[in-house]
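User: Hi! I'm working on a homework problem where we have to compare a predicted structure to a textbook description. Could you give me the structure for the chain below?
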Amino acid sequence: MASAASHCRSVIFAKRNILYNIAVRQSRLLFSTNDATSDGQRKPSQRIKSQNNSPRTDHLSWEERLADVVTPLWRLSYEEQLEVKRKHQQRILSQLAGHLTGDPQGSPVRGKLGFPVLPVLPSPVRDGYRNKSTFSVNRGADGNPKTVGFYVGTGRKGNIVCVNGDHLLNMPEKHKLVARCYQDFLRLSPLEPCLLFHAGGHWREVTARTNAEGHTMAIVYFHPQGLTREEVAAHKAELVEYFTLGPGSVCQLDSLYFQESGMTRCSHEESPYQLLHGQPHIYEEVLGYKFRISADAFFQVNRAAAEVLYTTVRHLCFPTPEDGGGTTTKPGGTLLDVCCGTGAIGITVSPRVDRIIGVELIEQAVEDARHNAALNKVLNCEFVAGKAEVVLPAVMSQLSAAGGGPLAAVVNPARAGLHHRVVRALRNQPAIRRLVYVSCKPDGEAMRNFRELCCAPDPRKKLWGDAFSPSLAVPVDMFPHTPHCEVVLLFERSCSRRTRAADGAITTRFGGIL
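Assistant: Happy to help. Predicted structure tokens:
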């Protein structure tokens, strides 16, 4: 009996090691490609390029293959997932350290960190955390072209299979329900799906957005091809009837949008989102503030982890050390919020500062930011629409002329990082002593930004200002079951006694992790 039990334990242990190694291999492959699943500021990956050296998956079910693509760490315990992410962030930041110490290759082996890196701050919610999911349409494993889900395979190899995502750990049930109902609608519709633009077809992806209260927005994307306006209107009416009176009414949609376009991706300005049913917005609450969510507005996909992220950013931008009486003091000054989106960071930081200036490219996001500030009765925020590299020099001149208290900056760009002219404007503004960089992909273009912020003055690149130095890194797990997380990097030019005291208080706020 004892021998049998021991054998059973050995088999279980060996099987767990195999699964662990598979998950780690999957995560390493994803870490090495730009096509990995992400999402802070982007749609969830729908197709991920197969790697030539990836382990064979023929023995796995389609559901397992999809889970390995979208949530490659799903086989690991959450503690093991955090450890995988911690090691990856250490490698990335060691590469930065290598660049700063003169290693031209930025070797992660030779680079020794000269600043502390906290352990990955965990997500309070680990399953079903996504508040936005985009589902593709393509041929399923059974050959049906009207299958709604996520891609496995690549177009180049011609082996794309669309697999239903009902089993994915990061998807909430409401999103899965919307996808199932949309698939049912497509199979009832006389129109074909648009798999390739040049091949015809009409129905494309569907996006589901939800908030903590369960309010749901669906956005259907449609290629008109050669249909007349009257024909398109008839099919829109069928879509509305299905989701309001037909089987799709189980989704209880608060908003149903329709975007008609011949492009793969386009903004509201290029092709307006048409509200077919319900309310134009849903709302989400973060750290006691309420935010309006439009059809194309960026919002962190994990609300609970966003609270951890924004709290971290708030403490790093403007630490509040205790004064002699045991109470915290307000730092004051100005926060420059670059790539501000709908204003979430600025609004949550607003009680600590005198003034917030947000800069954002997308007009609709700026409208949402202004609305959110008014909705929350935040009076010290102003938001400017335009390319940051165009708007920022004028904003900097205005701030220089006004003078005033301390000036800090926070940047939260997309995966492409900051335009070099934005980095130049930040670097050449001597009043900015503290800069917080939030990155969803620090080993991508953001690394170039880090180097330009921290290199010696370089007249050829018009980088005249004093160099920044990294002083603290805080990874935050926004995407459980995937290899990705957000990294909050604090850069400073000088560190006053008061600032050092404030940074000491951060240790306590983060639970003594540092």
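For your comparison, note the following. The CA atoms of residues 190 and 214 lie 32 Å apart. The mean pLDDT is 83. Good luck with the assignment!
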